[in-house]
Amino acid sequence: MKSPVHRCRDVEHARGQAGDGAGINCLQTEQRIPISKDVITSSSASAMWFIRDACGIVCAIITWMLVLYAEFVVLFVMLLPSKNLTYSIVNGTLFNILAFLALASHLRAMCTDPGAVPKGNATKEYIESLQLKPGQVVYKCPKCCSIKPDRAHHCSVCKRCIRKMDHHCPWVNNCVGENNQKYFVLFTMYIALISLHALVMVVFHFLYCFEDDWTKCSSFSPPATVILLILLCFEGLLFLIFTSVMFGTQVHSICTDETGIERLKGETGKWGKVPCWEAVQTAFGGPFSLSWCSPFTGLSCKNSPPEHVTIPQGEIIEEDVIEIPLN
């Protein structure tokens, strides 16, 4: 059972210092009925999404540059100088397909709304328009003044509350949440695959160069060839380990229906956890098919929120825990 502290996680510290009365209020709200994410929807689901964070933008650019560097070494150092045409065509085609899918997945993860809750909708008029039942309780985020559903958390970088937020990843310059977790999983998977593929080709190329003349196994000088291959080997090994761990962590989070931030905060949650296979189907957009591996397909099986949600205008409510009916 989630503790009263977790149920009132968004109450500001000033309220917590108000005395025993605040603590009693938190204990009372434990018995109230929370509001689900199906009632509070996002108004930016179809809009272009991009976080203007300097660190995230730099990390995203570095990610693309590293993939392009691997592409350069694989093509111009290992494959084009190779005497085996079949070997070059097969490995070149496979590597380029995986690299293209990795970059496409990265772009989708970066430019997809992760599940942001509308900002500034914590008004009496908006809450009344939800037509909630007496006894239900809604929580206001004091940072973005939004009415947040269960399992939503505020991201200080995105400056929004994100539904089923797992974590904020600077490498994709975005939060990993309900709407873009599939693309992040695909990104880590394809990066791990191209890293493994590059490492295997580096090993074979080193063996080929040792057996043959170093001046003939590459269009670059032997010292330059060695340096380029060692850098690629280091890059491939580093990202193979990193992305494999991230891929396994994300798959575990999907199967257990528990996000990384929920595990970090120790929130066991009162939500009804869905079975593993059902959770995987929800995250990847439907029954098992090849579309699971495609970053170009949407999440069709999700209950998508309306494209435009009209938020009644009004003053922001001061309370962080709001009980229905409104006082």
Automatic annotation (TrEMBL):
Its main location: membrane. InterPro entries: Palmitoyltrfase_DHHC (IPR001594), PFA4/ZDH16/20/ERF2-like (IPR039859). Residues 140-265 form the Palmitoyltransferase DHHC domain. It comes from the Eukaryota. GO terms for cellular component: membrane. It is found in: Membrane. It catalyses: L-cysteinyl-[protein] + hexadecanoyl-CoA = S-hexadecanoyl-L-cysteinyl-[protein] + CoA. The DHHC domain is required for palmitoyltransferase activity. The keyword Cell membrane does not apply. The chain crosses the membrane at residues 54-79, 85-104, 183-208, 220-242. GO terms for molecular function: protein-cysteine S-palmitoyltransferase activity. Pfam families: DHHC. The keyword Transmembrane helix applies. Its EC number is 2.3.1.225. This is Palmitoyltransferase. Keywords: Acyltransferase, Membrane, Transferase, Transmembrane, Transmembrane helix. It is a multi-pass membrane protein.
